[in-house]
Amino acid sequence: MDNQINSGALNTLKLGDTLLLSARKIKGDKISLEFAEVLTVKEGPVTAVGRFNRSDSRFGSRARRAWVNVTIEDISTDLGMDFSDNNPEWEMTPKGEMLELNMLNPVVDGERVRVMVSETTEPDAYQADNVETRAKRKGKDGEFIKHNGDYIFSNTLVIITNEVVKHVLLTADDSTARVITAKDIVGEKSMVTDEYGL
To answer: Domain for residue 4, yes or no?
Structure first.
């Protein structure tokens, strides 16, 4: 019953489930596999807007994505299915030649294929050249989230394990924004007016 195509779907993934979404042909004898997993880690508080709109697809999936490039021969053996050109399910899409899989909780030799998050302040060459788009932010265009004053880069890795996945999440620095209390407004009106234009 392991490694069944169309055994899962992104919108029904549960906590700890992994979905092998698709395969895409790339150069040479390789393909790129796309995985998604609803992780057991929380990267901040649950917002009301996210919680109360969880069935609205515009609020996005809770699943983290990860991609891995593999050889056709090895992955065909490991997952027990044909990823070669002989498979009639390959179809041309705007993203290239794709094979839709939707395989829930894939296994290799009895071990789960999982997604692991590993955050670091040491970017790879691509991240270093693209800090504006690769460093972690508060929301799509929000302020950068830093750890000890350094940018955080969040990497997702595809691993094979039956053990509990240990994610590496860096503690974010405190926000530099000042919180104004009712006491500030009532007791120190001139300070608030000068600094914030109130």
So the answer is: no
Q: How far apart are CA 110 and CA 82, in angstroms?
A: 19
- pTM, to two decimals: 0.76
The reply to whether 68 falls in a domain is yes
Q: Are strands 107-108 and 96-104 parallel, antiparallel or unpaired?
A: unpaired
Number of Cβ within a 10 Å radius of residue 178: 8
Range of the domain at 177: 10-196
What the block records as the tokens of 25 is 């042909």
List of long-range contacts for 21-26, beta carbons under 8 Å, 24+ apart: 21/100, 21/101, 21/102, 22/98, 22/99, 22/100, 22/101, 23/75, 23/83, 23/98, 23/99, 23/101, 24/95, 24/96, 24/97, 24/98, 24/99, 25/90, 25/96, 25/97, 25/98, 26/69, 26/96
Decide if pLDDT at 197 tops 50: no
For the chain, list the strands marked E by DSSP.
18-25, 30-37, 64-71, 91-93, 96-104, 107-108, 111-120, 146-147, 150-151, 153-160
Q: What confidence tens digit (pLDDT) does each residue in 81-102 have?
A: 999 999 999 999 999 999 999 9
189 within a domain of the structure (yes/no): yes
